[in-house]
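Hi X.,

You mentioned you wanted examples for the new student's onboarding notes, showing what a folding record looks like when two proteins sit in one file. Here is a clean example. The first protein comes first, with its sequence line followed by its structure tokens.
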Amino acid sequence: MQRRRLGRTGLEVSEVGYGGWGIGRAQWIGAEDEESIAALERAIDLGLNFVDTARSYGDGHSERLVGRVARERDERVYVATKVPPKVLPADRGSRAEEVFPGDHVRRSTEESLSHLGLEALDVQQLHTWQDHWIGQGDWLETVEELKREGKIRAFGVSINDNEPETALRAVREGIVDTVQVIFSIFEQSSLDELFPACREHDVGVIARVALDEGGLTGTITADTEFPEGDFRREYFAGDRRRQTEERVNTICADLGIEPSQMAETALRFVLSEPAVSTVIPGMRSVRNVERNIAVGDGRGLPAEQIEKLRGHRWERNFYD
């Protein structure tokens, strides 16, 4: 497993990290704790040392599983988590003192530490972000206090779905050490401004949804069904499954690969971008761990394939 610097945090993190949403047993249906723990253990066996979770993933369930594994390992495992917004919507009309008041940031951080059983968080993130919150409320003062107290080592934000421009000011003004952002063959808008800014200001990039919630695994077809309560019923609602299948087939034809190679290609595309510090696919089975970890070998994709994949950018919103 190759490692990369997580920006100015100085942490050397595995190219492939572990996304902990799916093991929270909420929204993603079908996770079993025993299997989730086995998958996480196997990932660490294979050299993974970075895990991203959140307090809202199963109301702390994901954090508890991650903490249980991280505490028992001899290897150093870096853990990132997130503060959920206190109120919704956390949109352009919201105020920071409503969404992320300082006392809420502190309480959430301390609850996460309790769930994880750790003394400090390697990375604490706000679980949504708007640049106009800079200068509002007392969240930043609280973050700085938590850093001084040794409860947070680095601070970042998890950028809104498909809106990388909402964090440009935070990056350019030195407010964040890391950003977490959707980046995939389909969602490439971070290449326009965010990634150049991150490179210039030495901000670590945690790439999420690299497999488009399964859409870039080559397994989603027009006939795919998801269980009741699984968020993918909405994500792939309407005609989205057929569109996804057709676009994946076009990619395979363009690159001369089989659908079974799609997941590896999608992850290597993300890791071919120098600004990316780590990619965090969800991996609820040992099989998926072993398949995905193999991508963290530093090889990326050939330049000609990257150029072709640039043409498969798909501008869309969650439901469009």
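Then the second protein repeats the pattern, sequence line and then tokens:
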Amino acid sequence: MTESGADSQSLFAGRSDDLHGILNINKPSGMTSHDVVLRVRRCTGQRKAGHAGTLDPLATGVLLICLGQATRLTEYLMAGRKIYRAVICLGITTDTYDATGSVIARQPVGELSLERIGQVLASFEGAIQQRPPAYSAIRQAGRRLYRLARQGVAVQTTPRPVYIEAIRLIAWQSPRLTLEVTCSAGTYIRSLAHDIGQQLGVGGHVAELSRLASGDWRIEQSITLEQLEAAVAVGDWHKLVQPMDGALRQFEAVHLAPETAERVAYGQTVVLGIAASTPLLRAYAPGGRLLALLEPADGPGLWRPTKVFLPAPAGAGGVPKASSTPDT
């Protein structure tokens, strides 16, 4: 779907000192997601960075760090399905539902058959109502639940719908149950582990957790913080940054003619005369730079920008003119 012949994609959304793109970081255990963001900011000098989808301090694996204007795309990254590898320790229940919490119950695991375990796991597949842990970042009356829980306030969470696409049994060596879980965004693996333990009648908590994939972003393509810092030291860390339109692959692309791109840059509705099969379009300026996300407007063939990706012009508060030549 194109108005022009542009087919390349720059990591730079216009002329700026910052990179605009996504880092696929393999988060280490023991760090919060915010800790990872701070470390990325410090080592790269990026002024603006944020993560797309929190991982608990215990957890490892795919943590997407958005840089520059890519921070405006976190909602699309967070919406993708997730794959986790989880080790559940049965027989011990904790208040946080993972190994960082205080033990609140112990039960002998006894002889659990693979058949019984398989039946319980199957009961959690599909659309379910899941109650998030009390120790979570969900807000209640404007306050994070984990802060209330740490203060001894009784926290009652509300069940919410999630979708568990598949639970695959990887290993069972009592009392440790290793699973691979494919699920929707918003699923708490800690709650799943707790509920599986309760259903088996012995309790349980997450002992180890790794996110193997978030949408199309997989752990095999991730980098460690040490690899990033080494690349920064030799001045080629930009090679590790993925284009920001990687967050938008689910939407069809349109390459705009210069005049149309300029109108979109100013936030104006344009006539494209196309029928798209996706609710939004990712629009590219001549030269291949991601320019905007477009949504249908009132009227046949009309599209309006819902997000425009342009740098703030130096010393000005307005919107800069869209360039009809590739950015350099």
